[in-house]
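Cross-check.
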Amino acid sequence: MPYERMMKTLRLENGAGIASNETIAHPAFIEKVTGIDPFERPQEAMVAVTRALSIDWQYSIPRHSVKFAPKERRKDLGDGRFVTEWGFTGSGWSDHAGFDDAEKVYAYDPFDKYGSEEDLRKQIREGISHLMADQELCGSDAIVSGLYYTTLFQWFIVVFGWEMFLVAAASDPERFGLCLDRFERMSRIYAEEYAASEIPFFFCHDDLAMTRGLVFPPEWYRKYLFPAYERILEPVRAAGKKVMFVSDGNYGLLVDDLFAAGVDGIMVDWTFDLKDLFRKYGGKKIIAGNADTMVLTYGDMADVRKEVARCVSAAGGMPGYVIKCSNDLPQNIPLCNIEAYFDAIAEYGERYS
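Predicted model, tokenized:
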């Protein structure tokens, strides 16, 4: 069963085969595979496509859909919140009004917005209860992990925006470090609650890099970020659970630091050399991702098959690989290509051991 295949992958067991994780935001493909309109019945559609394609790992099962009119690209939800057209769920984001100088960043206390520690714990537990309900829907067909999106670095992007984040970090690193401590406490609480839950592993995210590389010099992350990561992840590791980490962009210079901080596996995009990662960490760490969404979008079916073959070959039969398209599977991928992608995974997966 896919659930057990993913658990074996996490345990780095031989013979598990290739596990998969995909964010499918392609309504036409979902409806073709399942016969269900995901705009009308999003939960049922996602569970059905997960089962039909033997996808081992999902972050969550969407409860709502967002349908856009022709040529409509954005909806204003009020209070500085927006949703952009993307698949059948839309992509939400917020503006960063109110932060126009570094002093406001240094003074900000996230608990002023999110409430007391107990208030925050109640919110987290409610979110976990939704994930457990999603897990019940999927049963043995997939693990539902959730995704903790704001491990630490990401808090500053989400709350302040890139510009004020960079200004504050560069203007007074020591005061910025004190601000970082407040967000570390927030994330430690999240980790404690996930550690106490029935979710089998902790999947966390921070956008440490861009396509061309890191945002700050590696030394900045080593001084300010990774000691905090160790403290944040400690309750998860104490509970005997694995930690999976994902960032956009090429964060290759920090992979050793992430593993030293307590991360057990990483999800990477197409900018990484997958063969090199397996040469260094194969059989010791979990590695997910690397298939290039652009190949599916702009290549032909033969190109798609070659891309899957490249990933499988790079993993070299070593345990711990989870295949995934780096930039998900959006609605502009030609149907024939997305079908070829899953056909190739099924074919190569049977050979993988």
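The CA atoms of residues 275 and 314 lie 4 Å apart. The radius of gyration is 20 Å. Passed to J.P. for a second look.
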